[in-house]
Structures are given as structure tokens and as C-alpha cells.
Amino acid sequence: MTELTKRVSAVMLAAGLALFTGTAAQAATVLNRGNGGEPSTLDPHRTDGRIESNILRDLFEGLVVYGPDGRILPGVAENWQVSDDGKLYSFQLRADARWSNGDPITAEDFVYSLRRALTPKDGIQPSSNMRVIKGAAAVIDGAKPADTLGVAAPDPRTVTIALEAATPYFLDLIAADNSALPVHRATVESQRERWTDPGKMVSNGAYVLEEWRARQQIGLGKNANFHDSGSVAIDRVNFFPIDDSAEEVDRFKAGALHLTYEVPQDRVKWISLTEPKVFWNRPFLATYYYAFNLTVEPFKSSRDLRRALSLAVNRENIVDKVTRAGETPAYGLVPPIVPNYRRQTADFIAEPMENRLREARRLFSAAGFSPMQPLTLEILYNQSENNRVVADAVVSMWQDAFGKGIQVKPVGVERTDYLKRRARRDFQIVRAAWIGDYADPTVFLNLMLSTALPPRNDPGYRSRKYDDLLAKAAASEDAGQRSSLLAQAEKTMIDDHPVIPIYHFSTKSLVSQQIKGWVYNVRDVHPSRFLSFAGKAAS
User: Fold this and answer.
1) Residues 98 and 128 in one domain
2) What is the helix (H) or strand (E) element at residue 140, kind and residue range?
3) Which of 286, 352, 382, 460 could form a disulfide with 505 if both were Cys (CB 3.0 to 4.6 A apart)?
4) pLDDT band with cut points at 50, 70 and 90 for residue 536
């Protein structure tokens, strides 16, 4: 028996035991989800990674939530009003909102949580998206205390949030951004860094944290105090932090997983042909890119070198021959599925590859690199088969373009180490990806604000022109003018080449036919509370 077979058999046994605990009439329904890697934290105010967010959406509920199809639904707030000028939102909390320990959820919980989320701590950068809240920019930048934030609790069941300017997508923002999730103040302050441990965490979502075995399994149980617990059909959710997508597929085929995080690039075509009923392949709101470290040489002062490396990447070849799951070649950060926005691209998008390579070689040579003085590089990425094959393809393209004038070493590390190295910019080039919280260009463009820190502004990009254009767009109440300003900002950034956009994502995961409620939405977000098994209903 192989080691992989042993692991799969063990998982199947564990899943079987969980499924049939107690009498047949009382058997719990258990959902097993592959989740791509070990979460760095389950504190919603200290992470916005997809791996963490998949779990956090089950543990916590904000004022509003995304439904299965991406439409805004009431969350802890049962209704809300918006002022005529669009700058003040007033949320009325439902009377039956409870924390998992039975405590009532109050407006002060949201005031405390937003202040906490937007206060910088331990080098962690609060969400740039939340700068739309009145006073948030100064709080995020550490210039003013959290109590100056434009959020208030006029009574125990009313939360008001004042904005700097009318923000039509604000409900989408707070439905998607982890910083808008509430935390239980007494638990956070009494347990401190241990508050996210099983048995200590108090949450308010459809599920509670029951176990967290590092690099093995995170188990969630149904929250009896959740206001809509009667419609939650699945009793237990197990998240498996598997960073090997091939192993995920094997576990899925063995029946140990109902869902995978992704599938390996080299099996996409075969799976699409042989398993079309379980292969989930749709475009979604995300971009895959490489970021240069602009805080050190050789990239700090050489735009032409950055441009040369970008020119030499054949994006069309990558999506056609490497990823092969319907991805779109990327020449900017904002995906083409973002509505009401004119896509911005690098100026060489229409140039044949031979012309791009000719210009790339000229710029590379002019930057001072040659076989006699080669450019030595490392590409940092978090370990996964998909990241490895993309890195190998890019390295091969650079070697074909520049020959012995370049020496590139791809470095794959475990995700926790990868996140630490990104946070301190310990890289020359780093693999990155961003999934949009909502369908607006700012989700992607805010990444490159001068004030943003990793894992947003990984390259350390600084441009006063770019910042000013985004500021003007944020203050504009004319939709056409705002879109034009955002487009100008993106084009400015693209022309500076702080990153190499590679492709815009399509999902490539496996979803068991037993699962019901898995509905397409551009964010590819599927909270467990909206899922069920065929033939099973909520009790």
C-alpha cells in the first residue's frame, strides 16, 4: 500500500466514522472540502487569503452576506437604509442575532470590530478597500485613533457607517471583506492570541470551530445559536489543507472529499473530457501575476529591465499549453469580467511574439546584462503543482529569450513560509494572485496604492500620479468620470511594470454530484450553509 493510499484510506475511515456517529436516524451529514493549504490564522481581521476566507465565511456572518448566486442578502442586519446623498448607511440588527455562546449581538460589537480591523497591528496592513469609510484612511495609516472612524451605534440594534463619498458598491464590499466581520470582544480581549483556538473561539456564523489539527484537518460543527440554523442542512464541515492538487483529486476519486480546491494543470484537459459532470470550470474574478521587488536592485531603478522580462512572457502560450482551463491572458490587473469598465492593457498586447522578443532582448542588453554578466534571479512561490508548472514555463521563456544572460531559480516553499517572506519582501520576484471581493476595479487597483503593504502592494510600488488618480476617482460621484480616472490609474501602473500580469482565472475544481446549491458567481464563493446533499434536508 502506497503512502498516498494509506492517507486516503485514513481520511475515508475518519469521514465514515463522522458520517455514522450515533443511530442511523441521528447520523450527521458531513461535508469534506479540500482547501489548498494550511490557514495562517482564523482571525478575520488579520487575513484576506482565499484559504482562510473559505473557513471564515462559515464561522462568521457580517451585516450583509452574499447569497449562493452572489446577490446581497440580509446577514446580522435584517434591513438597512441609505441616505439620499449615498454617504450614510444605517443597519438594523435582527433581534435573534446571537453569538455561539448565546450572548446577544449588539451594534457595539460591530463598532468595536471595525475599529479593531482597521487599526494597524504587528505589521499587518488593514484592508485598503475600507478607506471609503469616513476617517478610515487616517486610522489605517496610523495617523488617528480608531475612535475617529465613521462608525457608530446610536442604539443597541442600529449600526451607522458614514462614508467619505457615495460608494455604490459598499454593500458588496462589506459582504465580502473580512474586516467587516464581527468578533466577540470579551473573548478576543481575555484569550488574546489564543482566541481562535477550538473551544475558545466565539463566533456568529452558521458553524463553530471544533478542531484544528495543523496541516491535517479543521473541523466545524453546526452553530445551534445561529439565527437561521434551521435552514443549514450540513451538520459538520471538514476543511483539509492539502497543497498538493494531485492528492486532492485522488482523495476526491476515492470518495474522501466532496470538493477540491483545484486540480493539477496537467490533468485539466483529461478531467474536462472524462469527468465533465463534476468538473467546475468557470471564469471568476481573479488575476495571477508575478511581482518585482522594487525596493532593491536590480528592479528598483530599471523600468526597462522589468519591461523586458514582461515582454518575454508568452501569456497566450501559458493559457493554451500550461493552464489549459479557459483562463484569459492578462495584460493588466483588472479582469475583463468587471462590468462598466474599459479594460486596460500593456501597449504591446497586439504585437506578435517575435516583435516582443526583439524589443525584450534590446532592453535586456541595454540594462547591462549578457552571458558575461548574467542576471541571477529567484522566483518565490507557495508550493503547489500549478504554481510550479507556471514558474517552469516562465523560466523556460526567459531562458529562450535571453540565453545564458539569465539564470533563474524557482523556489517553492510551504505556504506559511511563503506568506512570511512576502510580508517582509524577502524575494526578487514573487508569485501572487488576487481574488476580487466584489466586481469593481478598485478591488484590484487599491493593491498598488503607495500606502498598501504586502500581501497587497507586494512590489512596493510608489507613484504619486497613480495615488492621485485613485483619490480623484474615490471622490467622484459621476460614474463615467470615475471609470475614466480608474482606467488612467491602471494604465499608469501598467506602463511602470511593477508586476507581470499572467492570466485571469477560471475555476478548476471538482464538485461531487451529491452536492446541491453550488451556484455560479463571479467570486467563486460557496459558503457551506447554502449547500446540501441530494436527498437530504435541513432538520
Assistant:
1) yes
2) helix 136-140
3) 286
4) low
